[in-house]
Specification:
With 710 residues, the chain is mostly helical. Helices cover 65% and strands 0% of the residues. The chain is built from 35 helices and no strands. Residues 223-467 form the Dynein axonemal assembly factor 5 TPR repeats domain.
Length: 710
C-alpha cells in the first residue's frame, strides 16, 4: 500500500489481492476527483466502517485525516526521528469542510480511533496516530481526557505485559532479533498517538494534563531501558513534543520532566542504533534551544550532554553526524570552544570511555574526537596547558584502539596518535617506542587507506621529533620496505584469476564483518584489545610484500610534503629514493603490480606540487616519464592503472606547462598518447578525479569536517 497521497492510496486498493469488495472499490474510486465535501465525507465514513479489510480502513483514515488537516492547516509528522516540515500543503486540492461537517467527521474519527487503537495491522495504528492529531483540537475536553487516559493506560499495560508471545511462530535463536524489530503490540504506535495529541494541543496540553510521575517513569523506561529501538525512538518523539508544548510555561521544564529528559538524552545520544541516536539528537536540539530561549544557564546540562554532542559530530552514520554538527552551530554559535575547555574533564572521561565501546563506529568517532581536541586546544595559547594535563590518559585510550581488530578503528587511532604527538611531543615521548612499532606495522597493512594514514602519522611524528624520527626512517624503515615488491612471489594473471575463482577455496569459509577482518560469529574478546564491529577474533590474512612498497609510496609523498620545513629532506636524499621507487614499480611478475603503479600515479602529482614546479621539472620529471607512458600505452595494464597514469600525465602537464611537458617526451608515440589525453580533456570526457567526492571510499577530513565553531 502506498499512503503518500490519496490518489496513490486509491490506486493501491485496486491492486490488492485478493481483491476488495466491489462496493468498497467503487466508493474509493468516487473520491479520486470528488469536489463535493459531503460526498467525500460520506465516502470516507463508508471506508471507515468497513471492518472486513484493513486496507479500506487505512485509506478511510487517510482521507478523513487529510480533510481535517488541510482545513485546520495542521502538521502531522510520523515518518521518523526528524524535524517535521512546515509545508503541509496536500498533494492535490481538497474541498474545505463547513463547521458541521468538521464536527461530524471529528466524532467519527474519534470513535474509529478508539476502536482501532490496538489494531493488529501496524499501518492502521500509524494512521490512527495521524488521525488523532487531526481531530483532537476540535474535540471536547471530555473527549481529549478520555483519549489521553486510554493512551496512558494502554502504554502502561503494554510495558507491564511485555511483547507479543512469539514462541509459537519463531525459534529461540530468532528471539533476540525480534526483540529489536517486531512484536511489541501497540506500544510504539501508542507513543506516537500521544506525541500526536501533544503536538496538536500545543501549550494547552500542559494546562489540561499534569506531569505525573507514572507517565515520566513509563516514558523513561521506554526510551532508556526498552529493548526495541522503535519504541525507544517513539518515546523520544513524545518528549520532543512535550518540550515544545512546555515552551510557554515557566515551571514545567524545571521540574521532574527536566530530569527525565536529561536521562533520556544522555542514554539516547550513545545508543547503538543510529535511528535512536538521531531521535535523541532531535530531542537534544529542541530541549537546549527551548531552554536557551527561556534564559536557562544549562549548568546542570552541559557536563552530561556536551561530551556526547561533541562525539556525535564524528559518528559514522551521516544523518547523525550532519545533524549533530548543525545542532552544535545552532546551540553554540560562538562559545563552543570555551565550553569544551570549561567541561574538559567530563569530555575527556567520555572520550576515553567510548574508546572501549562495544560499537566500532563509536570507537572510530572517539579517536577522531580526540584528534580534534589535540588540534583545537593544542594550538591555542591559552588552552594548551589545560589539555596537556589529560594527554597521557588520551594517549593510552588511543593505544588501546591501536590494537583494535576493526581496521577503521586502527586507522583512526593511528591518525589520532600522530596528531597528538605533533601537538604534545614531550608528553607522548614515553610511548614513542610503542607508537613507532604500531605506525610502521600499519604502514604495511592489508588495507590501502590504513597504509596511507599511517604515512600521515609518521609525517606528524617527523614534525614532532625531527632528527630522531628521520634517522629511523632513513636507516631502518625505508631501506626495508621500499624494495619489498621485488620479493613478491611470482604469479601469472591466469593463476591469480584461478585462485580467486576457485570455489573450493571459498566454500564453507568464515564470513567476515564489514569494516573488520573478524568473523561475524563468535563472542570472544582478546584481553587488552578493543572490540570489533560485530564480534571478536584474531583471524588475519598474511601481508603481501608489495603492500609494504605501496605503503612506502605514501610515506615518500609525506616526505616530499615535509621537505619544505625539514632541511634534511633535500634533493640529495629524495632524488635517490624516488629514483629507486620508480625502478621498483617497474616489476611485472605478479598481478597486483598494477595496483602498485596505480598508487604511485595517484600520489605523484601531489609530490610534484609539494616539491615545487621548478624543482620537480629540473630533477624529478625524467625519473617517472618512461614508466608513466609505458603504463599508458600498455595493452596488459589494468583499466585503473591506465586511468591513473593518464590523469597523472594530465596533472603534471598542467603543473609545468603542456608544451614543456610534451617536449620532454622521448618519442613520437609518447607524444601522440599525450596529445590524445589533451584532446580528451578539451572534449570534456570525464575527468572525474578532479571532483573531491570522486571516491566515496576515502575517509572524510579528520579535523576539517566538524571543528568547534569559533
Amino acid at each position: 500500500m502506498d499512503f503518500s497521497s490519496i490518489p496513490r492510496a486509491i490506486d493501491s486498493l485496486q491492486r490488492r489481492h485478493p481483491p476488495l469488495d466491489a462496493a468498497i472499490l467503487e466508493t474509493a474510486e468516487k473520491m479520486r476527483n470528488a469536489t463535493d465535501p459531503e460526498l467525500l465525507t460520506r465516502a470516507a465514513e463508508r471506508l471507515l466502517e468497513d471492518a472486513t479489510r484493513w486496507e479500506s480502513l487505512a485509506v478511510g483514515l487517510l482521507v478523513a485525516t487529510e480533510l481535517l488537516a488541510q482545513t485546520k492547516k495542521g502538521a502531522v509528522y510520523m515518518e521518523g526521528p526528524r524535524v517535521p516540515s512546515t509545508d503541509t500543503a496536500p498533494v492535490y486540492t481538497l474541498p474545505e469542510l463547513n463547521e458541521e461537517q468538521q464536527t461530524q467527521l471529528c466524532n467519527t474519527l474519534h470513535r474509529i480511533s478508539m476502536e482501532h487503537l490496538e489494531h493488529p495491522e501496524p499501518r492502521v495504528r500509524t494512521m490512527v496516530a495521524k488521525a488523532i492529531a487531526a481531530y483532537v483540537v476540535k474535540s471536547s475536553l471530555e473527549v481529549r481526557q478520555g483519549l489521553h487516559s486510554r493512551l496512558i493506560g494502554s502504554i502502561h499495560q503494554h510495558i507491564q505485559q511485555g511483547r507479543d508471545d512469539a514462541s509459537s511462530k519463531y525459534s529461540r535463536s530468532s528471539m533476540g532479533a525480534l526483540d529489536d524489530t517486531t512484536g511489541w503490540r501497540a506500544l510504539e504506535t501508542n507513543w506516537q498517538c500521544l506525541a500526536s495529541q501533544i503536538s496538536a494541543m500545543g501549550s494547552d496540553y500542559w494546562r489540561e494534563f499534569p506531569c505525573t510521575d507514572d507517565m515520566l517513569a513509563d516514558v523513561e523506561y521506554s526510551c532508556v531501558t526498552h529493548v526495541n529501538r522503535h519504541v525507544r525512538a517513539a518515546g523520544m518523539a513524545v518528549l520532543e513534543q512535550a518540550v515544545i508544548a512546555a515552551a510557554e510555561h515557566d515551571d514545567i521544564l524545571q521540574g521532574p520532566l527536566r530530569k527525565t529528559i536529561k536521562a533520556v538524552i544522555r542514554t539516547g545520544l550513545a545508543d547503538n542504533w543510529s535511528q535512536v541516536r538521531l531521535a535523541a539528537s532531535v530531542l537534544c536540539r529542541v530541549f537546549l534551544i527551548t531552554l536557551q530561549t527561556k534564559g536557562d544557564t544549562l549548568d546542570d546540562i552541559f557536563p552530561v550532554l556536551l561530551p556526547r554532542m561533541c562525539l556525535n559530530r564524528f559518528y559514522l552514520a551521516q544523518g547523525v553526524r550532519l545533524y549533530s554538527h548543525e545542532t552544535w552551530k545552532l546551540v553554540f554559535p560562538t562559545q563552543g570552544l570555551e565550553l569544551v575547555v570549561q567541561y574538559l574533564p567530563a569530555v575527556v572521561r567520555y572520550y576515553v570511555q567510548m574508546c572501549d565501546a562495544d560499537n566500532h563506529a563509536v570507537r572510530e568517532a572517539a579517536c577522531q574526537a580526540i584528534a580534534e581536541l589535540a588540534v583545537r586546544l593544542g594550538s591555542h595559547p591559552e588552552h594548551r596547558q589545560v589539555l596537556a594535563d589529560h594527554v597521557s590518559t588520551l594517549l593510552q585510550a588511543l593505544i588501546m584502539c591501536f590494537h583494535d581488530e576493526s581496521w577503521p578503528v586502527r586507522d583512526e587511532a593511528c591518525m589520532a596518535t600522530g596528531t597528538l604527538c605533533k601537538c604534545f611531543p614531550e608528553d607522548c615521548r614515553p610511548e614513542f617506542k610503542l607508537l613507532w612499532a604500531r605506525w610502521t606495522e600499519q604502514l604495511t597493512d592489508q588495507i590501502w587507506s590504513v597504509r596511507r594514514d599511517a604515512a600521515v602519522a609518521l609525517g606528524d611524528a617527523l614534525d614532532a621529533y625531527g632528527d630522531e624520527v628521520w634517522k629511523l626512517l632513513e636507516n631502518d624503515l625505508i631501506p626495508k620496505i621500499l624494495p619489498a615488491a621485488r620479493d613478491q612471489p611470482a604469479m601469472t594473471a591466469a593463476e591469480y584469476k584461478a585462485h580467486v575463482n576457485d570455489i573450493e577455496k571459498h566454500t564453507g569459509a568464515q564470513l567476515y564483518s564489514c569494516g573488520s577482518l573478524a568473523p561475524k560469529l563468535g563472542k570472544n574478546r582478546k584481553d587488552g584489545a578493543g572490540r570489533i564491529g560485530c564480534s571478536s577474533c584474531g583471524i588475519d590474512r598474511p601481508k603481501a610484500p608489495w603492500e609494504a612498497t605501496d605503503g612506502c609510496i605514501y610515506l615518500l609523498k609525506e616526505l616530499c610534503i615535509k621537505s619544505e620545513t625539514h632541511a634534511e629532506l633535500n634533493d640529495n636524499v629524495l632524488l635517490p629514493l624516488l629514483t629507486e621507487l620508480a625502478d621498483v614499480c617497474r616489476v611485472q611478475h605478479f598481478p597486483q603490480s598494477d595496483e602498485l603503479r596505480t598508487t604511485l600515479f595517484k600520489q605523484l602529482p601531489e609530490m610534484a606540487h609539494a616539491l615545487g614546479k621548478q624543482r620537480f621539472k629540473a630533477l624529478y620529471l625524467e625519473v617517472f616519464l618512461d614508466l608513466l607512458f609505458r603504463t599508458i600505452e600498455s595493452r596488459s595494464a589494468s583499466a585503473l592503472a591506465q586511468h591513473a597514469a593518464r590523469q597523472c600525465a594530465l596533472e603534471l602537464a598542467h603543473l609545468i606547462g603542456p608544451a614543456i611537458f610534451r617536449a620532454r617526451l622521448a618519442d613520437e608515440m609518447q607524444q601522440r598518447s599525450f596529445d590524445e589525453i589533451m584532446r580528451e580533456e578539451k572534449s570534456g570526457s570525464g575527468n572525474m578525479m578532479d571532483d573531491p567526492a570522486f571516491s566515496p571510499l576515502g575517509p572524510p577530513g579528520l579535523i576539517g569536517s566538524a571543528p568547534f565553531p569559533h
